[in-house]
Amino acid sequence: MDILTHTASGLAIGTVIASVAPKGLWTRAKLIFVSGFGAALPDIDAISLWSKFDPTIGSFLGLEHSGRVIYSEKFWYSHHAFMHSATAALLIVLGGVLLSSLFRKTRPSKIALLSYAGFFLGFLIHLWEDMPTPAGNWGGVNLFFPSETYVGGWGKIWWWNNYDLFLIALAVFLLNVIFLLCSSIAKTKIFKPVLGAFFIGFCLLAYQVNSREFDFNYSRKSSKYQAFEQKSKEIQQSILGQKIYSWMESFDNQLSLYF
Questions:
Q1: What confidence tens digit (pLDDT) does each residue in 26-53 have?
Q2: What are the angstrom distances between the C-alpha of 208 and each of 25, 68, 154, 198?
Q3: Does the model's pTM come out above 0.85?
Q4: What CA–CA distances, in Å, run from 48 to 57, 59, 259?
Q5: How far apart are CA 69 and CA 32, in angstroms?
Q6: Can you give the residue ranges of every domain in the chain?
Q7: 3-18 and 110-130 are packed helices; what angle lies between their axes, rounded to 10 degrees?
Q8: How deeply is 159 buried, as exposed, middle or buried, from its count of CB atoms within 10 A (0-12, 13-18, 19+)?
Q9: What is the per-residue pLDDT across 47-62, written as a single tens digit (0 to 9) for each?
Q10: Residue 208: CA count within 13 A, CB half-sphere
């Protein structure tokens, strides 16, 4: 799935975390940001596709293979490998807790614990959202690294062009931001409405993923790649209608990344 949908989903999780934080717009905004960052971070392993990867990072680390080869293989540092595992999420959080304890020499505050929780859950939702994509070169995500088993690769959705999923995640995020703002003004608790909106959005997203009625799956390479991508766009047009689809396609075409 694309980075924008991952990030929007993480931001939506962040609103739930923020709803139980001590009131304060800045504090809540930071929690939402951390959750969004956690949801975007797994795709850092796609840096091997960067045009300057080989003469910079690859050369510095003395890597035997080119960045493009690394990306599509199943080395521990390839795409969908270590950085697409629950192990990576856990190690990053534990590293943050350890560093915080060493420098501050105190127990993590409630805000810090909420930040770790938001980051961890944001990271995990990224992995969950990648599982319904095609098997491709990896056959899913290396969820339980260092196990060599990859989970997912079901081909229920295409790699990108899933505008309906992005709009669901974005709508949940924006609605919950409104709830949080109203809560700050009215000085009321807001956890249940925020959690409810997230739960409904999560269920709707899961339903949309499982209602494509088309098998996008393939392993390694496929001669039908372009046909699958076109089919994904046709499905989006049927779901969203011509007007909204045209808006989303125009937005998509203005981006320099796959969406």
A1: 899 999 999 999 999 999 999 999 999 9
A2: 33, 32, 14, 15
A3: yes
A4: 9, 12, 19
A5: 35
A6: 3-253
A7: 150
A8: middle
A9: 999 999 999 999 999 9
A10: 22
